[in-house]
Amino acid sequence: MKYSFNVVMTCDGCKNAIDRVLNRLGVEEKAISLAAQEVTVTTDKPYDTVLQTIKKTGKEVRSGKTVE
């Protein structure tokens, strides 16, 4: 499945924190855009698992959706 999340990120540190937790989760493919405030992931993990993993960084997730 492919998911897209709107996440408040203010710096590269925010982006790197999200990258680290998604790596630990075992996400196969991801794109993190600081400029667009968007995190897109392709994974076999459930939506809620990915959402909670991103939230563990302390970043505000404004919205999320299943893309495919």
From TrEMBL:
One BP term from GO: copper ion transport
UniProt GO molecular function: copper chaperone activity; metal ion binding
Annotated keywords: Chaperone, Copper, Copper transport, Ion transport, Metal-binding, Transport
Domain HMA span(s) in chain numbering: 1-62
Pfam entry (one): HMA
Keyword Cell membrane in annotation: no
Entry GO terms, CC: cytosol
Keyword Lyase: no
UniProt family annotation: Belongs to the ATX1 family.
Protein name: Copper chaperone Atx1
The species this protein was found in: Schizosaccharomyces osmophilus
